[in-house]
Amino acid sequence: MASFFSVLVFFIYSMLMFHPEIENGFLGNVPIVWMVVAEVILVLFSWFFIFYSMRAFLEARTKEFAILLHLGMERKQLSKLIFLETVIIGSISIILGVIFGYAFSKFFFMIVREILMLDDLPLYISWQPFLLTIAVYLSAFILISLFSIHFSPDRKLIDLLNGYKNIQTKVAFTQRRAVLGIVLILGGYVLALFITRSNMTMFSIFITILIVIGTYFFFTDTTQYVIDKMKNKRLFYWKKSRMLPMAEQTLVLKNNGKMFFVMSIITTMAFLSIGLLATLSSYTSQYDKLNPLGLIYKGHIDNPYEIKHISSVVNALEDKGLSYHLTRFTVLKQTSSYTKFEVEVFRESDINNLLFSYGYPMVHLSSGEAMFIPYTKESIKELAKKKVDTVLLENNLHLTIDQVYPKLIFPTSIVSLNSIIVSDTDFKKLVNPYSGFPDIEPGYHLFTFDIPQWIEAEDIGVAIQKDVAEEYLKEEYTLPYYFENAGLNYSYILSTYSLFTLVGLLVAAVFLLAAGSFIYFKLHTGLEAEKKKFDVLKRMGISNNELKSLVTKLLFPQFFLPWGVALCHSFFAFFAIQKIMKNFANISIVKEVVFAFAFLVMIEIIYYYLIRWRFIAHVRD
Amino acid sequence: MSILQVNDVTKVYEGKVTNRALNQLSFEVEKGEFLAIMGPSGSGKSTILNLISTIDRPTSGEIIFNDIKPQNLNSTELAFFRRRELGFVFQDFNLLPMLTVEENIVLPLTLDQKPVNLMEERMMVLAERLDLTSILHKRPNEISGGQAQRVAIARALIHQPGIILADEPTGNLDSNNSREVLELLSKINKEREATILMVTHDPIAASFCDRVLFIKDGEFFNEIHRDDRRQTFFQRILNVLSLLGGGQVGDLSSIRLP
């Protein structure tokens, strides 16, 4: 079943990957290399997964093989048997997986289309995904069967028959490593707290290394050390019915330390991918709030291209049939006596023109009054408390600024930190230009296009955008104009987002599946021994409820210890990311991250209860 | 005063092939008695033990412990009953490998959630009595078979049960260890007046008991009581065994006393 599902997922994803729409058009901006990377990860994981599941499957049948060998089957015959079985299972799962995958592809495409807001993704037939899936999985199965044959026959027959009688029970851990584990993890956390934009790359690498090594030691040594210390306190250890599950935990932890480590790292990565997705989705959804204007053109007062550019944009808009509201601003720079720095001054009627198109309340200022223009959402609250009395030095204009416009009018990228609105009468008084003139521009013309369907305006003014983009990369920006197309930017972001979503969701799903199945397989192989143990206990007399509670005490740490550690790691990772994001794009990802985590935790709890139920059912009879 | 009464117990296993394991078997066990149940393989020894352990129910008839009828208890009460009134010694020791010797001994008490000092106290007493103090901190795979069975006996005693049920306790032991274990059981029986019911096919083991009950094909066959000397008791046991069935030569031990 596991193989079947794995093939299914792989195939659906391949179908998506090779879809002609995606290949040719939409995500063309983003390098195809990312898709290939995702595919490679998927292949690797699938191989690994198949390998592990087949191995577990074979392990569970050691007794059967032992009996066959005992009866006189040759090693060679046994190898052939295993090989044939594996190939048959493999072929069936491949065929079924492909068939079901194809059947579900359309469904999947529809989901993807909804998530990414693409146009239709029609179902198509092409040989590529089929071939890839078959090739990958067939090779996986064949390799595995060859491998496993070489692995198992080395054990002695008698060991295979006796099975689980001789479990290794020595404990091997050192205090030094135990402490080291904790220290490294805590170190990683502390670094995460102090991450900033400047040291981001270096810190991230550091943190990752620290946490990975720390987690390894945590699971191999620290956990055993802690339990050992607890065992020494007999009063605690023997109380209630703790003794048995705790003693077992030592064994479980020792044998499976490495597996828990892998599980927790994988789960962390799954958490991170999902959290990142949540972040991106929140960013994209907030995008239009942060960028209320469809097109923005900003240029020097004596910009020679102004008329040409503006008329070309207007023509393009009319050709496309997009309704727009154009506002023309003349913005003057002045020096404020309060801050001694420049301040950008907007005219009330210009602002009201724009506000009218937004449908926002208008501004009414009397002479001598001015209003702050907020530059971010948070700044609205800040500026509301501010009251400034200042003089615009060049023209000796007294102003009292004690209000802030309660909504964002301009996107953060084009408004400066010090922008105010003054009444028309005051604006007329600003005849003297900025003191920095002629070295620094005394002001600028701003053309804002409020386009309700701004997403569709993405290819307006592309030529201008191109020039701007090229210039932006140079050391000095010397063009007399600047152009921003929110629709175009959004399409870039959207394509990045959709890519990350695809990759991220896939990776997360694979990781979660892998982590979950590790536990499942591991438990499954140890089931016989567990049953025997519980038989003894039942003989000695335990009720059903006690049985359940013993199983819970046994299983609970095995599930939630790795997951808990993963959650902890992810928490700190996101804390770090939040700090960086605050600097970059000034949005909070807290809500989305909490939501994503809650969702994941819920999945895990369900999974835990499911497995526990199966385990109890099996052990009880 | 009988601590255990088996009255007319019959056990039939249904299925494709119906099998009557026990047929109207009746006997009583007195308090402080050391009883052996002997019989060839397939005679129903394990069945009777399972029924007395309350793991299984008789098809008809009843089993009474000290005036308690286990068949009237629900499964939870049964579990508690087993835990408190019965002690088990198995053929393959069944010590839990992940626990140390002392932890194995107190296991029944921890499951019953008894206070820790009580557990410690009883454990120390038993360890001394059974000469286990030197191996208390070892694990089951580090001790010999005889020591392991002694640990199992300690575990069966620690909750002071009404009766100890032993299923072929010497089955996996060599002759020296067997003798050790049997002498220990005998000592416990005498000093603590512990009631022990032992199922065995080994006549040497049976010779340590007060009384031996023979069953064949699920029915009562014979019973003999001990006399002064163990050797003569042993000889009389062998005599009965030779009567048990001509074809089953393999059941007879090859040791004969002069």
Topology-level CATH name of chain B: Rossmann fold
CATH H level, superfamily name of chain B: P-loop containing nucleotide triphosphate hydrolases
Radius of gyration of chain B: 18 Å
Q: What is the domain total for the residues of chain B?
A: 1
Q: Unreliable stretches of chain A, pLDDT < 50, 5 or more residues?
A: 24-29
- The quaternary structure here is heterodimer
How would you characterize the largest beta sheet of chain B? 6 strands, mixed
How many strand elements of chain A? 9
Pair with the biggest interface = A-B, 28 and 31 residues
Helix and strand pattern of chain B? EEEHEHEHHHEHEHEEH
What share of the residues of chain B lie within helices?
A: 25-40%
Q: Could you name the ranges of chain B where pLDDT drops below 50 across 5 or more consecutive residues? A: none
List the total number of helices of chain A: 20
Total number of β-strand segments of chain B? Answer: 9
